[in-house]
Amino acid sequence: MKITSATFKISVSSLKNILIDKNEFAFVGRSNVGKSSLINSLLCQKLARTSTTPGRTRLINYFEINKSFYFVDLPGYGFHSAGKQNEKLWAQLIEGYLNFSKNLKRVFMLVDIRHSPTQDDKQMLMYLSYTGKPFTIIATKADKIAKSKVNSYIKKIADDFCITSASILPYSSQTKVGREEILNIIESSL
Ligand SMILES: Nc1nc2c(ncn2[C@@H]2O[C@H](COP(=O)(O)OP(=O)(O)O)[C@@H](O)[C@H]2O)c(=O)[nH]1
Ligand SMILES: [Mg+2]
């Protein structure tokens, strides 16, 4: 699939404002895992705001792609210094979105290839399984480890999640490894 156009559509902070008019692909994961960078590298342009400060994106951001579907950049979870109350609000927003978005075709859940999944990651995976939405797990920042070690890192994450390695895709927004695979997954989900 080719990306022919991409524009920022809208940011929403509440479930009552979520869009319902087009197919959607959502990106979830901890703050700083590389969601915005992944979206930008898929689009080959800097549309999504990236940050070195975790927890800055507190909104659901919609990007309209090829005038036909949306990429949805969800707020990062697991940013505990934001306070328990804020964490709860974000969790409600993310879970509500995942539950109510009828046109959500697939969720891409991102984890850092170098780190074991956290309790938040495990909870998110359980929630995704519970909603029954199709999802793909992406192991980000693959450029930060030696190529020869990618498979063993993927295996470690898969073991921690109790899933098979085959369901985790390594990705790098710097080298763009994994980009074609994600675009193919999107095309076949439409
Ligand atoms: N080396 C490397 N750094 C990355 C990659 N993806 C994201 N980053 C860096 O990780 C930080 C957080 O990225 P961002 O996309 O803002 O994460 P988000 O909070 O999940 O949206 C930024 O400093 C990015 O430059 C990657 O694939 N490789
Ligand atoms: Mg972001």
Task: Describe what this molecule looks like in 3D.
With 190 residues, the protein is α/β, with parallel strands linked by helices. The chain has one domain (6-189): P-loop containing nucleotide triphosphate hydrolases (Rossmann fold). It is built from 5 helices and 7 strands. A hairpin with a 3-residue loop joins β3 (60-65) and β4 (69-73). The N and C termini lie close together (11 Å). The mean pLDDT is 91. Residues 35-36, 57, 73 line the site of magnesium ion.
Question: What are the salient characteristics of this protein?
Answer:
190 residues; Rossmann fold; seven-stranded mixed beta sheet; 23% strand; binds guanosine-5'-diphosphate; binds magnesium ion
| Structural class label | alpha/beta
**CATH class, anyone?**
Alpha Beta
Number of strands: 7
Strand content: 15-25%
Largest sheet: 7 strands, mixed
Mean pLDDT score, rounded?
A: 91
Number of domain units = 1
Task: Spell out which ligands are present.
Answer: guanosine-5'-diphosphate, magnesium ion
Low-pLDDT regions: none
Question: What general outline do the C-alpha atoms trace?
Answer: globular
Number of helices: 5
Report how far the terminal alpha carbons are from each other.
Answer: 11 Å
Gyration radius (Cα, Å) is 15 Å
Query: Which range best describes the helical content: under 10%, 10-25%, 25-40%, 40-55%, 55-70% or over 70%?
Result: 25-40%
> Can you name the CATH architecture?
3-Layer(aba) Sandwich
The helix/strand series, from N terminus to C terminus, equals: EEHEEHEHEHEH
CATH superfamily: P-loop containing nucleotide triphosphate hydrolases
Strand order of the largest sheet: 1-3-4-2-5-6-7
CATH topology: Rossmann fold
